[in-house]
Amino acid sequence: MPRILITGCSSGFGQAIAARFLDEGWEVIATMRSPSTEGLPPSDHLRIVPLDVTKPESIEAALSETGQIDALVNNAGVGMLNVLEGAEIDKARELFEINVLGTMAMSRAVMPGMRRRRSGVIVNISSSVTLRPLPALSIYSASKAAVNAFTESFALEAADFGVRARLVLPGSAPETSFGRNAVARMGMDVPEAYGAFVQTYLQTLRHSTDKTSALDVSNAVWRAVTDVYAPMILPAGPDAHALFQKTGGAAA
Ligand SMILES: NC(=O)c1ccc[n+]([C@@H]2O[C@H](COP(=O)([O-])OP(=O)(O)OC[C@H]3O[C@@H](n4cnc5c(N)ncnc54)[C@H](OP(=O)(O)O)[C@@H]3O)[C@@H](O)[C@H]2O)c1
């Protein structure tokens, strides 16, 4: 039975991806900072393992108990909705530690096993925000653009050893707790001078009709993992698909 490790399974996309792979008969290692089965389907093939992607000792401990990993999904991430002047640099550093360095550290940690077996796939969850510039998202977008650049370069090194790396770019998914978690962890202290601008922008976001669901994301991850011909970049959700096509990306 193939085995997948997914980061950030305490909520949102992580749970949907875990459920999809369990349905398809995979062994799922659902990792999260505070272990809980809440939101995950009961299954003999599900293992919950504590993992904080920013802590090397946590990564080492998690991988020491998982055995061979056939697929890794770097899903853990945090957002930040603020203009640059309102953002604390310490918070930006924390965000990059999770979104960028956490993704690199996890990929680096599973790579020796995959390289030796000459097989494996790493899927990094980026975002459709990387497909066009958006205000009040500069730091978050920069982190996901870094994930894109990292993944595309790393994929060239890994391919030599039969290991694939792919990107999934979800669109906006208000059904997850992403926005709430972002504000809780990163704050949203918008400077007064930008107040009206940010309010107007948030209104336009709320009025956009095309939205991404967790199902769209789990479908895209499934394809990225199981289809050896899957393209490097898979948009997930109607809004992400529309943006991707506008930027000249082939319909995936
Ligand atoms: N929702 C959207 O609109 C959207 C759109 C595009 C891309 N994305 C990306 O999709 C991914 C999942 O987002 P989501 O919508 O499912 O949001 P979510 O519900 O907030 O889930 C994020 C997950 O990341 C985990 N996490 C945060 N810091 C971590 C750390 N240091 N170590 C391990 N896990 C950590 C969280 O766990 P804790 O409970 O421990 O904090 C949580 O399980 C993220 O990478 C996000 O950037 C989301």
**Helix and strand composition category:** alpha/beta
How much strand? 5-15%
Count of DSSP-assigned helices: 8
Along the chain, the helix and strand elements come as EHEEHEHEHEHHHEH
Explain the overall architecture:
- This protein has a single domain (3-246), classed as Rossmann fold, CATH 3.40.50.
- The protein is 46% helix and 15% strand.
- It contains eight helices and seven strands; from the N terminus they run E-H-E-E-H-E-H-E-H-E-H-H-H-E-H.
- It has helices spanning 12-23, 56-64, 89-117, 138-159, 178-186, 195-207, 214-226, 238-246, and strands spanning 3-6, 27-32, 46-50, 71-74, 120-125, 163-170, 233-236.
- The protein starts with a strand and ends in a 6-residue tail after the last helix.
- The structure holds NADP nicotinamide-adenine-dinucleotide phosphate.
- Belongs to the short-chain dehydrogenases/reductases (SDR) family.
- This is SDR family oxidoreductase.
